[in-house]
Amino acid sequence: MPLKLVTGPANAAKAGEVLGGLRDRLAEEPILVVPAFQDVEHSQRELAERGAIFGAEVVRFKRLYRRIAERAGYRERVASVVQRELVMEEAVGRAGLTVLAASAARPGFARAALSFVGELETAMVEPDRFSDAVRAWAGEGPRRGYADEIAAVYRGYRSALDAAGLVDDELFAWRALDALRRLPDRWRATPVFVYGFDDFDDLQLDALETLSDRCGADVVVSLPFEPGREAFRAVAETHSRLSALAFERVDLEPLDDHYASSSREALHHLERTLFSTDVPERLPAGSAVRLHSAGGERAEVELVGAEVLKLLREGVQPGDVAVVFNEPGRYASLVEQVFGAYGIPFSMVHALPLRQTALGRGLLALLRCARLEGTAEDLLTWLRTPGRLDQPHLADRLEAEVRKRGAQSATEAREAWEAARWPLEDLDRLSAARGTAALLWEIDRLLGRLFTAPHHRRAPVLSGPQLDDARAYDAAHRALNELGNLLAADPEVVLDARRVHDTLGELAVRVGENPQPDRVQVASPREVRARRFEAVFVCGLNEGEFPRGGLSDPFLPDEDRRRLAAASELMLPLREDRMERERYLFYVCASRAERLLVLSSRYCDEEGDPEAQSFFVEDARELFDALPERRRSLSEVTWEPEDAPTSAELERSLAARGRRTQEPEPAALTSEALLAELASKEAVAASALEKYADCPVKWVVDSLLRPEALEPDPEQMVRGQYAHKVLERTYTRLREETTTKRVTAANLADAERILLSELEAHRGEFRLSPKQTRVRAAVRRLEFDLLRFLRWEAEAETLFEPEHLELEFGLGGDEPVEVAGVKLRGKVDRVDVFDGQALVRDYKTGKRADSYKWADWEKENRFQAALYMLAVRDRLGLAPVAGVYEPLGSEVRRPRGLVSKDVEALGTGWVKTDLVEPEQFEQVLTQAQERISATAERMRRGELGCDPDKCGFDGTCSYPSICRSED
């Protein structure tokens, strides 16, 4: 029986013609072929609504090929995507490539080669024919080597498939059709109806011809096409090829009866005149066609979300709304955020690599920890896989521990875990798996444990996002079994842990909700071409996105394809010029709406850089007197109150437009227990006084709340502790070994020797950095700084000698020092003494100490030097004559602080402005006493306030989430 071709523009009742004929043939168990998964379910519902509940089977072409194979008696094992990629990698590795060697070494080569081979098989081109064709194209010229190698890749791939006893999807369809042609009666003349397609590849056309011509089956094919219209130029070749097969043609006239009455004139006019070469009449758009213009992708999705929400509140069913993107996956995260916040139920199916799913991240991290170079972060990722730990906070504790230790490897992190908790035996089992088959089995077992762990003994019915983990499990489980089967079929395939890891990581996992009547469908143009919607939003109408530019094939660009066709008559599709196809897809989108069509574009990106609007928008604009436009700028962080789509957005909008209020700064601590604790403290630390003076809130956090650190101590802090320890030990040993306290030219060599030995002796106590290479550099830099400091000491013209090193008061059972009625505790780095006088030194590991000059002490809240001088006077009975800060990292010795200018024994080398008369020296100490007393009193009373400028070292607030200061 012949093929019947039903054509007509969009909305010409082609579905009625096809589905009506199918309904009349239900007794013959007809087959309906549709383009996509979602079309299968939608068509089943539509048939059920028309009374065709039983009798018809709705399939895609892939399933049709299976039916053909079953009836023709053709049976072969079909390779999965994972198996195909592995087979291609093996074929590429065995091909001995030279011209393509560099390209073949890059990631993605095998996948690109698979795509190219699939194209050849779809065109039903055998390896020998392709080899002859490319040789005819290349001749004996410089392209010959390249031609031979791409032919070798195809030939090697097919040979590797044969060796594994597999065929791929295209080869399966090709051979199934060949088998049916040999036994055409086995089809039993089952009628076939094909609906929703606008293009067919060579295999699909071959199937239609075989069924109608060889098997005598009634085949009815619908195709959107209207002669002479620019919108259908992309479909013209398909129409021509189908027409050559068709015995009967039905050309349907355009209809407008399905449009909403208020939108009929505008939407029908758009469908009839879009891309017309004649100058069309302009009609009023009314409320049927609108424009959106947004500043950035988020603003665009927010505009669409607000409009969709309005439609749903007006009673439009969610399933009657379509939001179309040319690349939906690119917008998946934004749509989830915005539609989720607005409470819009939506469906959007897209693919993620397994490594980006929660289950996949955990599985791959486990594999890295056990068999590859796993990191501490990998171990944490595995432990944090949902359900892996009954008490997830244990992973947080481990993270804090490994970060403070600076642990980098999974081994170090595991040691930290097992020192306090149970053994991680899964790592040992996976590590102990010998041979690839055992490795795959163990990975699969652990995959099952990871997947079931959150649901153990609960037997839940999975829904929503929970299904994504189930899909990830299913994809990984099947892939592991497929890898095992391939290994068993072809023992020459090499599968080590790294290859298994990388293969699983790139495994595509289908995530998201399937289209349902109760969900807004977010989809691509191809996914909505087979049905109509009450409202359609066509988004991303910007140059380079819709229309999208063509992509050159990496193996045979279009120019080479033209030359190949001229040389060998092998015609492969051209791919680079997509304009006709993009124009048709826009026509499809624009013709899907029954009531409302919104064309959405962006005038700039998220950075404010301009973006060009698609000329498709201008094509639509030319058909109407004017199109109403709704705009949302990049600067609009909230909605206008009357436009706010949700109550939460309304609150934000009103708050943004209301009077600016500032939360009052915390006035004081009010907890009686805490105030009593503060009052009972015997002594106050000098560092706490400075913190409080800088910013009371910072003092509350650092000294009272004391949050647990989640990282190693800062390098500068550890460097300072290391330097203090080394200098203390150096001066102590110098005194013991040379009987001199001060570094001089005579004992400088001894001092340097001692310092180097102390640096080495205490190196393990101070972890300067988690990275060993950085530790070596940091130790070397500190060594240079301290040796330079010793040389300065030897050159100093002073009579003062180091007498007290790391002098403690109020610590370790020692009595505190009382200054102006305030008991204080602390540690003085070094006190040099001469003739009953004291020079107080405080080491700083930085390069400069200019901010520590006495003139800035009050402004910068510097208490320590003055406090230490007062403590030395009280504790040691010495007269302080200088208090300075020593910058150990400076290239030139330049201590800063307060120095009495009448003490000649101090020597020279002091900054002139730091030298003061004895009277002023005492005055500065008196003022410091007063400030210490006042600050300590405020601290005891729990007085609070905020000073972000002095809180952090960089002039910013250290704890903004606690302080909330907006100064």
How would you characterize this protein structure?
The structure is a single chain. The chain is an alpha/beta fold and 967 residues long. It has 5 domains: 156 residues, Rossmann fold; 88 residues, no CATH class; 187 residues, 3-Layer(aba) Sandwich (Rossmann fold), CATH 3.40.50.300; 160 residues; 272 residues, Alpha-Beta Complex (Lambda Exonuclease, Chain A). Helix content is 48%, strand content 13%. The chain has 38 helices and 25 strands. Strands 18, 19, 20, 21, 22, 23, 24 and 25 form an 8-stranded mixed beta sheet that branches. It has a 7-stranded parallel beta sheet with strand order 11-14-10-15-16-9-17, with helices on both faces. Helix 7 crosses helix 24. The radius of gyration is 39 Å and the shape is elongated. The model has no long low-confidence stretch (mean pLDDT 91).
Keywords:
967 residues, alpha/beta, Rossmann fold, 5 domains, eight-stranded mixed sheet, seven-stranded parallel sheet, 38 helices, 25 strands, 13% strand
